[in-house]
Amino acid sequence: MDKKVEFSNHDLKKLIGPLIIEQALAISVGMIDTIMVSSLGEAAVSGVSLVDMINVLLINIFAALATGGAVVASQFIGARDLEKARRSANQLLTVTFTISLIIMTIALFLRSRLLLLLFGTIEDDVMKNAMTYFFITGLAYPFIAIYNSCAALFRAMGNSRVSMATSMVVNMVNVAGNAFCLFILRMGVEGVAIPTLVSQATGSAIMLVLISNPHRVIYIRRKGFKPDFNIIRRILFIGIPSGLENSIFQLGRLLVVSIIAYFGTVQIAANAVANNLDSLGCIPGQAMSLAMITVIGQCIGARDYKQARYYTKKLIKIAYAVTAGMNAIILISMPLILRIYNLSDETLRLAAILVLIHNGCAILLWPSSFTLPNALRAANDVKYTMFVSIGSMFLFRVVFSYILGIGLGWGAIGVWVSMVMDWISRFCFFVFRFRSGKWETKYIPVSSDNVELSA
């Protein structure tokens, strides 16, 4: 029997508000790192930014698996099968922690080769900073995997306040550690990396304690880590395509940034600064993307496709409204924000141009290009989103970046124009898919033997 799933405006505010704050806090960690390390010079900024691109590539694997777990848990909650929802929590943590250990080991042993492979010849001082930062932050991968998994499970329950509060703690530890290591101990890039590691370890420990509370709708059980391959398959069915999509997308970004690296430290540093400001403009859309998983996942689990369509449209409208407001504020205040960075005038001028390209176009394109696909993923339509994202990324971000960046000599500006072309492609394909209704045929319900609905 199909179940009715409804989210009041109050429910959505309770879910979305903390998500926006959490995303802002998460992005601010990277911004604060870049601002503080800028006091060490452009070589340090460049080294940190190059490693952060690799970190994002690898961490996206954990995020994709967490998305898979959140989709599965949300669907089980929507179907009122809380026993399977709880089992999925244990399985998600087991899978993500194991994979994170493997990735950490490989990355740490091959970090110099990865840097040379992806970015080619790098100036010696940039390489030295990158190697140090890579080793320390790489140790944080298992902690990040645990945190992402627990946060995804709380969101699946509709409780985003827990991860928001934990993110606040992580941020405070990171900022205090940065200030102490850089300005009191006078450390180099390790003074930014060590607090990042400590803060991530703190966050994962807090989340593990909270998700172990048996009074929650979903919680982990000490005796529940025996593999359940049916649930693991469901998690990986979402997680693997999403992981491939995100990882190849980030790999494409790395290939594109390798073009920028050829143009020298100024363009690398400008790209790093612009990435930080651009991330602020994406906060509303990213928060709405996470909300999509919870809301649409529960609708799909209840097989209530009318509500799934309704809430998808509603969340997209909210995403557009808040994205427009956020990016307008950034564009207006950009001259003041750029003064924070202790970089050359040439670097800051280029960063300003890149921000104008990104944030101006994001107002019209970003929500449909990146928030809408999560509604499709929540309905198990993961292969379509994967093929569209990978194909669009390679054609526009990679091929056109070489054409515009090197062929026409536009440098970083050509790369960012190519990125907007990728957005336009995604916009067209994902809007068409949603309107076609084919995404509604992908979910296969599990027969439920447990229909309790206690909190």
Automatic annotation (TrEMBL):
Q: GO molecular function terms here?
A: antiporter activity; xenobiotic transmembrane transporter activity
Under the heading CDD domains, the entry gives: MATE_NorM_like
Kindly indicate whether the keyword Transmembrane helix belongs to this entry.
yes
What domain of life does the native source organism fall in? Bacteria
- Is Cell membrane included in the keywords of this UniProt record? yes
Instruction: Give the family, as the similarity comment puts it.
Output: Belongs to the multi antimicrobial extrusion (MATE) (TC 2.A.66.1) family.
Its protein name is: Probable multidrug resistance protein NorM
